Hints:
The chain has eight helices and six strands. The protein is an alpha/beta fold. It has a single domain (21-222), classed as Rossmann fold (3-Layer(aba) Sandwich). Strands 2-3-1-4-5-6 form a six-stranded parallel sheet. The longest helix is centred in the middle third of the chain and has 25 residues, at 65-89. The protein is globular. The protein starts with 20 loop residues before the first strand and ends with a strand.
Amino acid sequence: xxxxxxxxxxxxxxxxxxxxxxxxxxxxxxxxxxxxxxxxxxxxxxxxxxxxxxxxxxxxxxxxxxxxxxxxxxxxxxxxxxxxxxxxxxxxxxxxxxxxxxxxxxxxxxxxxxxxxxxxxxxxxxxxxxxxxxxxxxxxxxxxxxxxxxxxxxxxxxxxxxxxxxxxxxxxxxxxxxxxxxxxxxxxxxxxxxxxxxxxxxxxxxxxxxxxxxxxxxxxxxxx
Length: 224
């Protein structure tokens, strides 16, 4: 299990007005990791990447969710906790940080995938871990339709994602939307990416970058 995947910052100072700790969120395949890479370069920031492919239970979970949901969830929970704890203990004043997830989102998957008894146990553990972690200065939540998500998942070609059902993605998207509709822990940008090319279009990316640098409070919607 990797403790922290980091690209160290360059020599340039972070741009004026940029958040010190920015987290990118969204459903599987929406493009959060790709955006996190590009944003980290723009902000001369360290890059923190979620451990996904190292979860040994994940392929089995997609084949048999009921049998492997709890093992998969607990691996992700503890992996994310170790990463975030190390991040919290670092000197954030030494430079900016961009992450491709927030710790709080772990509960979205737990609520969908765990049975009642498992969820009760999970919920007794999470507050003990969460109390020791730092919150981002800004969360960027990326949205896309199920059709767009399926296209992007197919394009990136991860073998263990090949058989993800559209129904599962739809359920996950609904859960994410519900979570972030009620989210007020940090400033939030909600970005509809259906018609946005944040990789190939410099103009669209630069517009979003300026919003990220400027947004410091409340919730703002982009691309609607």
